[in-house]
Amino acid sequence: MELLLLISVIFSGALAYRAYRQRRDLTALGKTIEDRDAAIDQLQTKLYGVEREWQESNSQFASVSDLSFDTVLLLDEDFGVIMANGRAQQLFGESDPIGQSLTKLAQFSELLSLAQIALSENESVEEQFVIRGTNYRARAQLIEHCQTRRTIGIGMQDITELVSLNRARRDLVANISHELRTPITRIRLIIEGLFLEADKPKRKASIQSLKEIAMETDALLWLAQDLLDLSMIESGEAILRLVKTPLKQVVDDAIERMKSQAAMKDLKIVSHVPQTVDILCDADQLKRVLGNLLHNAIKWSPLGEAITIAASEQLDEVIVSIFDNGPGVPDELRNRVFERFYQADASRSGDEGTGLGLAICKHIVDAHGGRIWAEGNSQGIGGHFLFTVLKADASLQEDTPSAGGDQSPLVIPESASLL
Fold this sequence. Notes:
Layout: H1 2-68, E1 71-75, E2 81-84, H2 86-91, H3 109-121, E3 125-131, E4 134-146, E5 149-158, H4 160-194, H5 203-235, E6 239-240, E7 243-246, H6 247-264, E8 268-272, E9 278-281, H7 283-300, E10 306-314, E11 317-324, H8 357-367, E12 372-374, E13 383-391, H9 394-399, E14 410-411
Parallel strand pairs: 8-10
Antiparallel strand pairs: 1-2, 1-5, 3-4, 4-5, 6-14, 7-9, 9-13, 10-11, 11-13, 12-13
Helix pairs in contact: 4-5, 6-7, 7-8
């Protein structure tokens, strides 16, 4: 009995010790699980913080890059897109650029080449190219975060307007060079012909030569005036003073200015403008419009023909039209002839012009609150330009000072700039 009792006590003690060890192990396991849960919670908190910092960093990257460049991309060493600002995402179209590789996008071969050069040469690289019809100046720079991580930053600036302006500047220089060279050369040859020692100048020939010199001088003055008008409009210094003015007076003054040029080609300028039509305008600026249109008509009219100016009232506007018997404007070029530096067909005329006259007309008429257009030659033979100005009716007369009174100037807005 005692032996059985001893065995029972020993067995019970062993069970109790085993249960104790299990409880101790369970307690330790529970503590380990709690520690792991706490570590997981800490890691999740850190991960949330990192994600929030990444989002803030990405947002700041996009905001700063939008201020610095039009389009900004950040690539990894495999040329995959890591970050992209708003304009860069638009460049990729509907698809999300993040994670895409430039190596698989044929339309971005220029960007890929730029990134490859920056990665291989470890220096800033700058190039110009065209993507989807837009001119870009792009710069790529290798960014080394550590020895094992490198990225490539690409900033792109839209220079389409700059390219267009540079092209316009080249056209202007070329046109002005031609315009200056031709009259100056002719004046020099005429003068040399007048004063040859072996041949005394005759009166009749001298008078004709002087007329030709006067004509070439007028061409130089016209070019200078075009450039002055262009400068005034671009600088915002062109000011309109709108006052009640008889339209016939403005037209007659413009015709008087152009008589000598018309006489060179034996042209007549006929006015059918009524005496009773009053308009709201800046007379000097409107004379410039009429002068440019008459100059254009004289340039294209055949010898001995007539140029006609007419006017008609329509509601609160007056429509002024200039007709000539020249070749007219092709229908497809009706809008383009008013573009800066555009010339419809210089090959048919010995006087190419600068392509500024009609553009200046458009901006002056627009500043008057009117419209200007050309009718295509399918509407009839000859050139036909029309523009509108406001009538000086009773409602406008009440608020409009007389020509001699003080008048607040109307400044041509920047939106009317030729640029």
